[in-house]
Amino acid sequence: MAQPPAAWDPYPEPLAVDSAPLPEYGKGSLADLLPTLAAGMGVPGTTAAIPELTPADRNCVFLIDGLGWEQLKAHPDEAPFLTSLLASSRGGTGRPLTTGYPATTATSLASVGTGLPPGAHGLPGYTVRDPATGALMNQLRWQPWTEPGAWQPYPTVFDLADRAGVHAAQVSSPAFANTPLTRVALSGGTFHGRLSGEERMDLAAEQLAAGDRSLVYTYYAEVDGAGHRFGVDSDTWRGQLMYVDRLVQRLAEQLPPRSALYVTADHGMVDVPFDEQHRIDFDEDWELRAGVALLGGEGRARHVYAVPGAENDVLTCWREVLGEQFWVASRDEAIAAGWFGPRVDERVYARIGDVVAAARDDVLIIASEREPNESAMVGNHGSLTPAEQLVPLLEVRS
């Protein structure tokens, strides 16, 4: 009889929850950026949490959706201007920021705008259960409708800056002007909608110059879109990177005096192969479905809501099936480990899954019937790995 290889273990140990790398909450995460900039402008109620950053009178944050640190470093030819700024990242240390968990757009934008980690602002995933209704709520599309101010009650940093007499402005696609996500994450001051990237860069520079103290935010989405549809190893994604590299240079060349431009992102991305080993289909796996009432989150960062009384059984099963490839934690274990930040507000607690699963390897838990569009994406994100968590904080000063 053939013998198994020496390294083969018929009873492998699941990944330990505390072995997952943690975001740098409180000193180097996305939630720390705007409070640091606002504190440097004297805005009450804000604290300079990133010690490497030097205050400026006029600050602009350009957030490029989906441009992770590792992906940027791997494409110097497509992004010569951004690459030239790598040494400036995080106040000249040459180090990245972390996004926070999960590394997904709705969560990260709320962290940026409120200056709070996910456990406080309350957008802890792509889809999460609303404890008031028991239904899944998509926090990016805000479906089904939920009162924004009740879901996320804290003021944004833009609100605080505006009240303190700082000129606060957001420059983005007109489609985002009145969305609930904009309201809970990025409201305060004035919103300016512009369609083209070039128009946004020009207007962002104008808004910076409009006040003696200014806080301006601008955004570009299509690097992320290209990654989801075609992957970060595609010509389409590289083309988007080349385009956004020119946008950053355009804005940098127009900075008014006493300005600092910070280029960052909401998450990185990994391409996941289309086969059964890398894409585990929840809708076709009876073990993973057993005892599960709702499947939330996304492929690399799942919230699993158990049928009442089945929480321990679901946790045990998910650990046995996935524990070599995913960090699988109970809600309380994930909170205690600090995945969602140093605190989780009471209103947020039950939004987090009874079981939380974060991918370590290049794998997904798809749901081909429930989530056909998401299950077909090439590039994915959400978890705690460096490819997803690390984002640049490139700096240009005038």
Using only CA atoms, what is the Rg? Answer: 21 Å
Measure the end-to-end span.
72 Å
- Could you tell me the number of beta strands? 18
Number of helices: 18
Q: Looking at the structure, what is the overall shape?
A: globular
Structural class: alpha/beta
Q: Estimate what percentage of residues fall within beta strands.
A: 15-25%
Q: Give the overall pLDDT as a whole number.
A: 96
Point out poorly predicted stretches.
1-6
Helix content: 25-40%
Largest sheet: 6 strands, mixed
Q: Please state how the strands of the largest beta sheet are arranged side by side.
A: 6-5-7-1-8-18
Helix and strand arrangement:
Blueprint: H1 33-40, E1 58-64, H2 69-73, H3 80-84, H4 89-92, E2 97-98, H5 105-114, H6 118-121, E3 127-129, E4 136-138, H7 148-151, H8 157-163, E5 167-172, H9 180-186, E6 190-193, H10 197-209, E7 214-220, H11 222-230, H12 235-252, E8 259-264, E9 270-271, E10 279-281, H13 286-289, E11 292-298, E12 301-306, H14 311-322, E13 326-330, H15 331-337, H16 346-349, E14 355-359, E15 364-366, H17 372-375, E16 379-380, H18 386-389, E17 390-391, E18 394-397
Parallel strand pairs: 1-7, 1-8, 5-6, 5-7, 10-15
Antiparallel strand pairs: 2-17, 3-4, 8-18, 9-16, 11-12, 12-14, 13-14
Helix pairs in contact: 5-9, 10-12, 11-12
